[in-house]
Amino acid sequence: xxxxxxxxxxxxxxxxxxxxxxxxxxxxxxxxxxxxxxxxxxxxxxxxxxxxxxxxxxxxxxxxxxxxxxxxxxxxxxxxxxxxxxxxxxxxxxxxxxxxxxxxxxxxxxxxxxxxxxxxxxxxxxxxxxxxxxxxxxxxxxxxxxxxxxxxxxxxxxxxxxxxxxxxxxxxxxxxxxxxxxxxxxxxxxxxxxxxxxxxxxxxxxxxxxxxxxxxxxxxxxxxxxxxxxxxxxxxxxxxxxxxxxxxxxxxxxxxxxxxxxxxxxxxxxxxxxxxxxxxxxxxxxxxxxxxxxxxxxxxxxxxxxxxxxxxxxxxxxxxxxxxxxxxxxxxxxxxxxxxxxxxxxxxxxxxxxxxxxxxxxxxxxxxxxxxxxxxxxxxxxxxxxxxxxxxxxxxxxxxxxxxxxxxxxxxxxxxxxxxxxxxxxxxxxxxxxxxxxxxxxxxxxxxxxx
Length: 451
Prior knowledge:
This protein is α/β, with parallel strands linked by helices. The chain folds into three domains: about 5-145 and about 265-325, FAD/NAD(P)-binding domain; about 150-260, FAD/NAD(P)-binding domain (3-Layer(bba) Sandwich); about 340-445, 2-Layer Sandwich (Enolase-like, domain 1). It is about 30% helix and about 25% strand. The chain has twelve helices and 21 strands. It has helices spanning about 15-25, 40-45, 50-65, 80-105, 155-160, 175-190, 210-220, 310-325, 355-360, 375-380, 410-420, 425-430; strands spanning about 5-10, 30-35, 110, 115-120, 120-125, 130-135, 140-145, 170-175, 190-195, 225, 230-240, 240-245, 250-255, 255-260, 265, 300, 340, 350, 365-370, 385-395, 400-405. Helix 3 (about 50-65) packs across helix 6. The radius of gyration is 24 Å and the shape is globular.
């Protein structure tokens, strides 16, 4: 047998890469990793974690206002962006150390530097070349900005987490969850926030009711929404002043333009041209159920395969990969009924099918829908509305979709996601005693179908 330096070399130490490396090492494999950007990947550094910290920060002004209905005097405290930025950076630094510690404790050899695939069993890092039985590509994804006149003046979500100062006015371009979240963050932090989307309504992969409620709530919160809007060019008039020209002839002056128009698999300059690895048209690495590419010794998982770009999915894939290849315990990843959340304000939580998807898949469905003002806002003075929606396959009584817009929607939908995996039916929900008074009890008290 050929003796390699390592049994597994992982390129990229995001959530998926670290988990795969750590678990494979615990199963007895000799493992190495390499990373030239962030320890912990997108989620820890320029994704989930800092994003949610910013969402928390942006929500406090509303809380100060809402408190008056409960007897607290008016408060207009000042906001210090630098304090938030410094504290966020410190927390990310701590998490970087945690991830490094996980690799160290598992006995993983880590290299700081750009890793490139030399051939099916060799990887170069800086000036060093090592051999390995298997290579796992877990390089994630990277923000994508289309080329147009003035595109060099825009930033992406990556840079949005490190702004030196907050702009007075911002324009976010895009219709996905990142765009919607950043528009809400900027507005909550006191920035005049605008969102431009080429289509008639954002969040196109989400349930229609969810999209409409979020649109209405963002509008109430002061976010300026521009649908069927297409940026043609951007002119720089000063260091912090840009003139944006739209296809309909309108113009907008703004201090910042953030593009959140999608992410592409991060496959550039990692040596894939040196091996037989098939890619999709968008650069995503094609893998089978064991995460193996068309090159038998090379594997890939996480965002770089562009299946479902979520941190918990990458972690679950890593667990399946490690068990299959280094613990003689074959696991096949289950991509059904994966719950997700969007941290706009109010939040979105969703699991299962949208109404349109369910109508395509089943002969007859029942829709249960409730739109209401939560108890808190009966005193806060806010007219914020929540949405709760259940989609049921009438033939089996099984839930096939559940959607929520409201505070802590992700926390509530997580519980329903467990029930989905267990095959929960509407009759089981009906027989469940609610916790009163909570928002979540609405899911077990909706009795009459809306359609």
